[in-house]
Write a structure and sequence with these properties.
Chain A: Belongs to the GerABKC lipoprotein family. The structure holds two protein chains of two kinds. Chain A is α/β, with parallel strands linked by helices. Helix content of chain A is about 35%, strand content about 30%. Chain A has two domains: about 210 residues, no CATH class; about 160 residues, Nutrient germinant receptor protein C, domain 3 (GMP Synthetase, Chain A, domain 3, 2-Layer Sandwich), CATH 3.30.300.210. In chain A, strand 8 and strand 9 form a beta hairpin. In chain A, helix 12 packs across helix 13. By secondary structure, chain B is mainly α. Chain B has one domain: Amino acid/polyamine transporter I. Chain B is built from 16 helices and two strands. A two-stranded antiparallel ribbon of chain B has the order 1-2. Classes of the chains: A alpha/beta, B mainly alpha.
Amino acid sequence: MRRTRRTHSLLSPLCLLICMGIMTMILTGCWNRRELNELAVVLAVGIDSADGQYEVSVQVAEPSQMSRNRGSDRSPVSIFSQKAPTLFEAFRKITTKSARKMYVAHIRLVIFDEQTARNGIKEPLDFLFRDHEVRPDFYMVVTKGTSAKDVVSFITPTEILPSIGLYKTLKVSEKVWAPTSAVKVTEMLKKLTKTGVEPVLTWGKIVGDVRKGKTPENVKQPASFSEFKYFGVSAFRGDRLVGWLNESNSKAYNYITNKVSSTVGNVNCPHSKGDFVVEVSRSKVKIVPSIQRGEPRIQLETTIDANLGEIGCPVDLTNEATFLAMEEAARKSLMKILKDGVREAQSMGSDIFGFGEAFHRKYPRQWSQWKENWNQKFKKIPVEIKIDYKLNKIGKIISPFGNNLSKKE
Amino acid sequence: MITQQMTTRQAAMWFILFQLGSAFLLLPRVLAGTAKQDAWLSVLIAIGAFFLLVPLYTAIAKQLEETSFSDYILELFGRIGGKLLLCGFIVGYPYLLYIIVLRDLSDFLTTSFITETPAEPILVLMMSAVIYIVRSGAAVIGRTVEILFFLVMLLFAFGYVSLIPSAEVTNLMPVLEHGWNPVLLAAFTMLIFPYSEMMLFLFLVPNIRQARRWKKAVVKSALVSGSMFLLMTLLTISVLSDGVVSNIMYPSYFAVRTISIGDFYERFEVLVAVLWYITIFYRLSLFLHVSVQGLAVVLGLQDPRPLLIPLSLIALVMANIIWPNTAGYTAALQVWPFYSMFFGIFLPILIWMVGIFKRAKNSISKEN
């Protein structure tokens, strides 16, 4: 009885009217909706330090240039830059120059200039972490020599959007070329909170003519006037930049932190002039901490699987002894790279490899004593390197062609 | 008043969603703040400790027999004393929690998604759904929970299984670096919030009919939600490291934000918000259900339904003023376990002992 009456009352015209009224109020859409044509999608942010202030340069995609039948007379992106004491202020001040509000959820790349990185990046990063729109998936890069603004306003070949070009270059080269290392925000965050490991950021610079690189002329002929090139990683202490690692040392960093997925290395031939190239297919480094007479020691246990990729000297690969000699040469060459890399980081006093964390994990008690002056300890820590190097395959041909000829002579 | 029946399965599912509720977003931060990388140990200990509380709750559930929990309190402490105690309890615990959880909801949405929307529309929408379902009764809640439970599990699996590839075990080392004390302290926090809140389930004993079945639902739900918390804590800490987790407002949400697999399997963190919305909904409905049931007994009402709207309207106003700012909230969260402990642990002990005493007295007077 009761139930039938209730269903009836729900369907009564008055009730329906009220429900519809409520629905119209609820279904009005988002409170703070933002239409696509009111947004400027920020793809890259360049942060420069200039007389005590930050100069923020944002690269914004030009929507009209994204369509298929675009006119080629306008640049695909626009750059806005603004000086302000803080980042947030600068972002908001940019609205005085741009017709749209900056939408920062799609930032791919944040670029710091050398001065900002040396002064500490914690401050500028705080806004990027705190703001609800910014996503924790952008890469960070330090630029050497030129300002971040130059890098942001630079025109790249291949990709229409320069920031996507820079982003993809970094991503691709990280996979197949050991010295570069793409550092995402979350990794930076983690390293900033840990005491036993110092952060690194990739560094790069513009090579060539910076002024011409900023004009569309840069991509109007096959060879561009200038390009942005990633060189390696830069070492930090806390949130401050302390030094640049060159290509070989950056390689050592990526080997030791197990970031190498594939790379190639140049090795001198064992008995003759010329080089051969190994392609590393698998590499694993284990950091083994130990304590001897109360002092820390580090052992790096390295396992490498590699293939021969290119041979530039006359060798007879049907002979196993030659092959083993090449393996040994490759091992020695890697040993030198790792040793130099560790020495360089030690001289900078920046534990980018996370040796401290290794002690923290294995010897928490001693670590709590060393934690305070770990940087001093790290500089003097003896590092022993063990390498188990395996050359496996040699590719589609056996010995280099023309070997027989040279033997006849 | 017609008691509405629920199956054990429905009850267990409701309890699981209830426990996930607010804790799902807040717990990892709270635990990692105290126990650092050992937070997962705290989860294990908290669940273990909770099973020590289960016999206590079950004993009370057995004492209840056919009466409801609110009537039982009146029976134990007399009409006046019982009503005072019950009123204090309802206002100080389930109803206060109702207000706090409403605020949690608006805080999360307005910091992470819709920053410019004021809290009221969010709360009004949520509350109208909660009022409607509580009005429909426990049986209806039981049936809806059976549908939405699997959605929650699916979303959980979707969000957190994808975190496994980016987890690094090294972030969980070294184990017990700062000794047992912080671990136990964090475990205590978790035992109180959300586990000791399960004493509110005593109000639902008549809906499940038997104390034995009630116990089964409670144990099952604690096991499921506990393993979900364990997995979540392990994953958030091993993905983000304890230092980061303890400094992020909603780490379990942030962790899902970092997922990016193959450049297309990414940016689905809003699913976590959906998951949370559902769990919060069942949490709120339990609080409101208990509050109106209890207050109806205090006020001598036959039908608790007229209380739904007034209580919710008061809560709507209270939710916005209960703490002045986010910092106040963080401070409140630190003392909360000690406050909540009185209702979650001490009050049940008191009720249980008085119950034994009364029964002994009754049997003696019967013999005489």
